Structures are given as C-alpha cells and as structure tokens.
What we know:
A: alpha/beta, Rossmann fold, 2 domains, six-stranded mixed beta sheet, four-stranded antiparallel beta sheet, 12 helices, B: mainly alpha, 15 helices, 0% strand, globular
Amino acid sequence: MNDHADILTITQLGKDFGGLHAVRNFDLTIPPKGLYGLIGPNGAGKTTVFNLITGLYQLTTGSIRFKDQEIVGLQPFEITQMGIARTFQNIRLFPNLSVLDNVRIAYHAHAGYSMRDSVMRTSRFFAKEAELTERAQEFLGVFNLQDRQGVVARNLPYGEQRRLEIARALAAEPDLLLLDEPAAGMNPRETTALMDLIHFIHDRFELTILLIEHQMQVVMGVCERITVMDFGEVIARGTPQEIQSNERVIEAYLGRGAAALSEKLSEKRSYATGS
Amino acid sequence: MKIKFNRSTIIFLVVAIALILIVEVLYRIRPGGAPLLNEFWYTLLRKGGVIAMVAIGLNLIYGFNGQFSLGQWGFYGMGAYAAADVTFRWTQMHTANGLTILFCVLLFIGLSMYGVSVLVKRVRGLDPLSAFALYLIGVFISAYLGVLVGGALAGPVTSLLSALPGALAKQIVFFIAILLAGGVTADVSYLIGLPVLTLGSDYFGIATLGFTMIVKVLLDNSDTILGFQEMKGARGMISIPYMSSWLWIGFFLLVIVVATRNLLNSSHGRALISVREDELAAKAMGIDVTAQKLLTFVIGSLFAGIAGGLYAHIDGFLHPSTFNFIKSFDPMIIVVFGGLGSISGTVVASFGWILVLEGVLRNVLPSGFESWRYVVYPILLLLMMLLRPSGLLGGFEFPFIKAVLPSLKHKPSTPPTPDTKTAAGD
C-alpha cells in the first residue's frame, strides 16, 4: 500500500494505564474512503484506540498520522478541526439543547463570525448564522430529523438519538468518521436501517469510516476490511470472509474449546449474515 | 450594527427604556420637596440593578457554562474600589492620574497577555506552569510601563478635562471609571482563570472562594499593603461622589442584558453552553473547552466589575466588610432562585431579592423584628426549592431574550435510506 495515499496511519500505538497494557503494538492504515471495522471482545482496547486517535488520551508509544500530519500531542478540539469526528459508545448528546443546536454546535469552528459580530449583531452575523442554520437543517433533513429540530435532545427516542449523534459528528465536516458501537441497544429493524445509513453517508459524504461494533451482522455486512483486537493487540486483519474463518478470532471470542468447532460456526455465521 | 426590529425586540426595548425613564422621572419630580419615589426605594432599585449585573455574570459562568464560581463577589469589590479611586481622585484630588494610569496599565497588560497567548500557541509543548510564568512576567513589565506612561499622561488629560464644564467632565470620568473597573476585573479574571480553570468544577469553586477572601484582606489593608491612602483600609473609603443614578444603572443593565442575550443566541453562546452539557462531547465536536471556560469567566467577571463600580457610587462609602466572602453566596442564591440558565429569571430575582428582603420585609415585620427577615428568606428559599426546583421562572425567558427557532428553509430531499420506521420502533 502506498503510504501517501492513506488518510490514517497508526504505527506501533501503545497505551499503558499503570501496569496495564490497554493497547500494544497497534498498527492500522486506512485508505481514503475506506470503510473499516474494529472488533474484539469486551475490554480488548477498541475504545481506547478511538480515544487515542481523537486525543482524549495521551499515548504512551507510537505515532498517529492523519492526512500526512502527525496528530499526537494535539488537543482533541484541534484534531476534530483537522477532520476527525466521532460518536460515543454511550450516546453523548448535549441533552438540554435542541436537536438543531446540537448540530449547530458542531459547526462552531466553521461559524465564520467573531464574538464581536455576535454581540454587536453585525450584518455578517446574520448572514453567517443563516447560512450555518441552513446547513444544519440540511443535515437534519438527511437524517430525517428536520421535524424534530426544536425538540430537546434528551426527549428523543433512542434510535433518533443515535442518528442525531451521527448527524452531529458529520456536521463537524470530518474526513474520517469514527463510530463507536453505533448499533448498541438497537433492535434488528433499527440495526438494518443503521447499516443502510452507514452505507448512505459513506457514499454521499465520501467519508472514511472506522467503526467499532459488537453486532457481527453490522460489521460483516458493512465493513470492507476488519481488524480484530484482543487484550490490546491485533490478532487478525482481513476481509469479513477471512475474519469469519480465522481460528484466533473464534478463539478470542469463544474460548479455546470452541475453536475446534470453527467449521460449524463459520457455516452458521455465513447463514446469519445471508452471505 | 444591524438591529432586526421584530415585535418582541420593540416591546422589550420600549418597556425597558420606559422603566428606566419612569423610575428616574418619579424620583426627580418633587412636588412640595418630597420625591414621588422616595430615596429609600430609589436606592433599593439601584442596588437591585447592580446585583442583577453580578448575577447575570454569575449565571453565565455557573448557569450556562457550568463552572461553580464564588469569586464574583471578589471581582465586585475589586471593581468597586477601582472605580471609586478614579472618581475620588478626580473630584477630591483634582487630578486625572487615577484614570490615565489605570487605563494605561490595563491596556498594556491586555496587550501583553494577548502577545503571550499568541506566543504560547505558537510554541508547542510548553507546560502550563511556564506559560503562566510568562504571563506573569508580561503583566509585571507592562504594569510598570503603564504606571510610567499613565503618570506622564496625567497632566495633559487633567487640563483637557478641566477645560470642559465641571458636571460634564465628572460624568465622563465616571463613565470611563466604570469601564475601567470592568477592565480591571476582566484582566485579573483572565490571569486567575488561566491556572485555575484547568481544575474541575468543585476545585474551581474553592479556588475562587479563596480569591474572594484574598480580595477582602487586601481591601482591609489597602492603605498599608497596597499603598492607596485614599482607600483608608479597614476604616472604609469615604467621599466617593454620588454618581450612580438609576439612569446610569439602568443603561448599563440594559446593555449587559442585550449583550448577554446576543452572545448566548449565537454560535459562541452555543459553544459555551455545550461545555456545561457535556465537556467530552464538546471537545470531540471541535470546541476548545478551556478557552470557552476562560472566556465566560472573563465576561462574567467583567460584568461584576462594572456592577461594583456602579455600586461604589450609590452610597458614596465603601467598606471591605461589604465584600466579605459570606456575601458571595448572595448572587449564587439569586442565580439559583431565578433559575440556572435563565437571564429573565435572574433579573427578576435580583430585584425581587433586594425589594423583598430589604424593602417589603423591613416594612412588614414589626419594629424590633427586622432581623427576622433573615429567617423569613431562607424559608422562602426552601419553599421555592420544594415547589419550583428549576427556579422562579423555570425555563421561561422573555420573548426577546429567548432564542428563536428558525423556520425550515426548504423541503429536504428525501433521503434514500434512513427511514422513519426506526422512530416508530421505539
């Protein structure tokens, strides 16, 4: 793979919490417009990787390059402004603000008017604010939330909160979108809709997407390539088909005894995903 | 500047200006020597206006940005003494050196802090402590330069102002003194906020409480430690000109309310509210959380400084005990009473607080029982917390202050995938 073409290059990433190696020797490269998955059992360090990429944690070793620029040591908001947006495992909306304001906040870096403009209400304020609002409403329209723009975010049903969080992340105009368990707590029908949604935003906004997911249906159905983690280390990487038949992956998920049944299980799983 | 005169704006401005004028006129009309609105109530209204400014500043910091500050009372005292000193020097000592020196010091400090902040941003990996040391060095050098330049400017400015009619010059000096009081507190709050705002919310509260105590002690010793003889330390500063008419206070309050409203209903306002809502999410949405906290703290303190400056010129007397830390809970109670995150509620609660506590209860309670008002108001507070936990007006805002929900511009193109079924699924 050509290094310069990759939008995200993570090399030898490591993070220790005291004596615990949460992430060790983690490598990952994602080409532009890739749709990659990151899976692994609970506690494997997937969310830690997200937190390291977005700057919420300081890494212990390694390097993260985004669009050919080292982003280690940057503040989280600077990393977001460079073009990495994320959603959270447990939804983190701005609960007491309206749906519209939730999306408009993500635009803050691109607002284009100063505080003097807003206090003095200059004509620039009105022009830029109208522009910003219109774009936010457009995004809500894409996610079918435009009728809900005045609703306080905490009063939205769960599925809509998930959609709003993705809408908000997209409003930050990212090139790379990190989705942390977007299907968590969704029923099968919502999950199917979510898979369509991920495909849709991937095509429409020409994004690179990296997603963490526990629902194999989503990962196998959506991702082009999958990286599997266990105990902070990469144990496998490849296409969904390769991962499904990988013995180490099955071992990590189900234990050593189950690995012997890998044949049977992979049959079952391919039935479940309908492939 | 462009004002959109829709209905709510016009109603708000007309009512506000009418209230300002009516109160002032009622006080000025004196058929048979006694004003229609007597001195007592007039002063209470003025104090209500002043406390409203402190409370709005605090509501910005605590109610909107979610930082628990007990330092506003310290800034209030600081602003009071700063403004009082400037006008005192003009009216009693007939020199404008207070004005010019303070102006130059603040200007230079502001410039140096801006310079250092740009420098700190450039140099990556500078630890916060060294950055703060840089700020301090900049402040000391610029303060020294400011004293020198301001002292040199004092002579010409004094003669310039003396050439104007006395009353006009006095009003000009007063107006600038109030702005300078705001400048003092803004500069100081920036310097304090830099190291302190990295602390979590509770620690921030304790640190700012400490600041209020320091200010009180410094004011107690203002004639010895600080060396301002005219402030007279713990004996209290006297002979401050009575300049804070209701017109001035109403004007400043109106400006502060409108500015706050304009700030909050903008992208910057939403950014500072997002910090209260979810700090982590705000960071992940590209918002510089520390900068937002610092900015809000500076604006809130600026309001407190302006309020202090106006307060100093109501009674013509200042005493450090007024700025005791125990009183710093007054604006906090008002903010909670009026509703966290409600500007209208804060203004109503501020006037209500002063008028009920000092006005109504003082008259209603039988003589000898005036101190019982401090028993009555906690009961009122308790009842309110039980009956209306979200504040006096709850989430209510006057239509002018409330953010307008923009109408949908155009029908969005129907997206192919995310269907409405998911909403029904819940």
